[in-house]
TrEMBL record:
Organism: Streptomyces olivaceus
Keywords: Membrane, Transmembrane, Transmembrane helix
TM stretches of this protein: 20-48, 80-98, 110-130, 174-192
Annotated protein name in UniProt: DUF624 domain-containing protein
Transmembrane keyword on record: yes
Amino acid sequence: MTEARAEARPEPGESRFSRGFALFAECLLTGVWIALAALPLVTGPAAFAAGARHLRRRLAHERGGLRGFTADFRAAVRRGWLVGVAGWAALAVVWVDVRAVRDGLPGGPLVGSVGVLALIGAAVAGLRAAALWRPGASWRALLARAGRHTVLDPAGSFLLVGGLAVVACSAWFSAPLAVAVLGAVAAAAVAVEERHRRR
């Protein structure tokens, strides 16, 4: 696992099912890498960016593996940790809004609903930005571009909302299951952005 993977060209006799299963297994492994890289909490965006880039390489049949993921993570975390801090700050603001709703603040339900929707939109934009990330890219520019994609491609955004819901449900049911699902969410973000690009 620590060695760079050999070039993942499809074998001539390899079935479509075998290729799909291999990609699914790669997503599960990538989810474990993402979870480990995101343990400091503020490194979540950089971890997703490295995971998405690894999966793009896998789909393009290029060399990759843990070494490539680690190099990408180091490049992404240089500015990506600021995005992580901003995400946690947004979560804290929404938590305060929800507490205000529970305490009976006038207009609280509306404020709480807007806050939760804004947080979901920001999470989707963050995933899309991670899927667009390349070494040397500006996180600010990526987030602006991903924000536009989030609004202009509602179908793709709803797909990612569903992926986030699956992660949340998996975490509630079994934390190890949620770890594996993270890779599938990164793959979904890559697929959504590729679909948007082709359109």
